[in-house]
Amino acid sequence: xxxxxxxxxxxxxxxxxxxxxxxxxxxxxxxxxxxxxxxxxxxxxxxxxxxxxxxxxxxxxxxxxxxxxxxxxxxxxxxxxxxxxxxxxxxxxxxxxxxxxxxxxxxxxxxxxxxxxxxxxxxxxxxxxxxxxxxxxxxxxxxxxxxxxxxxxxxxxxxxxxxxxxxxxxxxxxxxxxxxxxxxxxxxxxxxxxxxxxxxxxxxxxxxxxxxxxxxxxxxxxxxxxxxxxxxxxxxxxxxxxxxxxxxxxxxxxxxxxxxxxxxxxxxxxxxxxxxxxxxxxxxxxxxxxxxxxxxxxxxxxxxxxxxxxxxxxxxxxxxxxxxxxxxxxxxxxxxxxxxxxxxxxxxxxxxxxxxxxxxxxxxxxxxxxxxxxxxxxxxxxxxxxxxxxxxxxxxxxxxxxxxxxxxxxxxxxxxxxxxxxxxxxxxxxxxxxxxxxxxxxxxxxxxxxxxxxxxxxxxxxxxxxxxxxxxxxxxxxxxxxxxxxxxxxxxxxxxxxxxxxxxxxxxxxxxxxxxxxxxxxxxxxxxxxxxxxxxxxxxxxxxxxxxxxxxxxxxxxxxxxxxxxxx
Length: 568
Prior knowledge:
Blueprint: H1 3-19, E1 27-35, E2 43-50, E3 53-58, H2 60-67, E4 73-76, E5 81-84, E6 86-91, H3 93-101, E7 104-105, E8 114-115, H4 116-126, E9 136-141, E10 146-147, H5 155-161, E11 167-171, E12 176-179, H6 181-187, E13 201-204, E14 210-215, H7 221-224, H8 232-248, E15 251-259, H9 265-277, E16 284-290, E17 305-306, E18 310-318, H10 350-363, E19 366-371, H11 374-388, E20 400-403, H12 409-417, E21 421-425, H13 427-440, H14 443-446, H15 452-457, E22 463-465, H16 475-484, H17 503-509, H18 512-517, E23 535-538, E24 555-560, E25 563-567
Parallel strand pairs: 1-4, 6-15, 7-9, 8-10, 9-11, 15-16, 16-18, 18-19, 19-20, 20-21, 21-22
Antiparallel strand pairs: 1-2, 2-3, 5-23, 11-12, 12-14, 13-14, 17-18, 23-24, 24-25
Helix pairs in contact: 3-8, 4-5, 10-11
């Protein structure tokens, strides 16, 4: 090494030493419990931040003595709790923005359930907001949470709302949709139109006539292509509002699991880059490209491209549908309707989905596969075994399975052995637990949905998510749902108590384990020296709150790099 190089190294080391020197913290937090979520689950009294990073955790006396100066900002928590910012590992930002902010949001997570009459009234009310030549675009109907049970919209029912305005209504699961005859006409779909590839179905009745029901997103494309797109200003404002809503729940990092699924992959990559170039996102984002939209030979970006604020890390595929929508692929039939032999359907043959994922796996992308039913989980695990063959450290690839809803014990063990990290839509238990147990799959399979308890016992990791717009973003609610496993519909019951975990386990599933799942555990997920100061301030300590009440704890502030982005 030349002398000048040695001098340069020496100067750089000296500069680093100065930048992290004790005695000049930008901010110090104390005055309430600080939950670190480190390996020992320790609570401390104080935390110091410098240049956006955590530089000290410990007792108040130690931290203030070593790090506080006249210029240090002191935040007295006044009994409130400081925790790592929550990590939401599975959201659909552009989809949710389109469905909930730019469309008519019909989602109902409260009681009583909607009926066909109340839904029709809401749709008719929404007509007044449709401009000339526009579509009535709505989201959030759910037959499994409708009275009577499994009552569904049809083209004939929607025609009673309007025969002049095309209507497109997406099911709460996102895997089904409903259209009126005007929409069918404009989309150019007829009784003889073949089903699209990728699992899409234009549902027909016994006479071969279109019913207005659509199965799986590929069947939506012909309709969405005819809808007037939102303006750039409309979309930009709605996305910003959506990101602020996510941040208000205490989330500091989220994974968008469908980059390209709404407006095309290149456009959405550009949109995300523009959002961060303008510093318009209050949270960090990890992006997963929507596999079904990737053109042959796609190479617009490389795996892991980006920085700690925005990084594209994975490819996501859909292997089956929705359990509550009766489209998830099961090994044994649903029990609805009575004497049913229907087991749902896989979206791809084994070789097809393997052929799609393998080239991207070899490039270094993380692979994520949506698999709700046990048949889809079998397919996914078998293909993961193939791509990981010969890999001495399969856990390094951190392959994902989204939902892992209907499962068996052997699948859990195989997933742990392969280093697979599942992410559970834990709202399944609260919002759909009664329907699963009483009507759709029966008690034996229902008690195993989202098997956090088994993953914990087997030594594996798991995470919890909303899958928004499927269920609302709210990490504190995920804790209540996972620990109590109580369904919402009276009479309330506990669904599979063996799959419940402790509050500390659930906290890790929305912090450090979720950060691990998205390859961000080196910078976020716990309050430890050297990590980014991504923080959430809570009204109460969830570790000292009754599990059922954790969902009601107020988020008082969300901080990124030691600076507040949301103060509630």
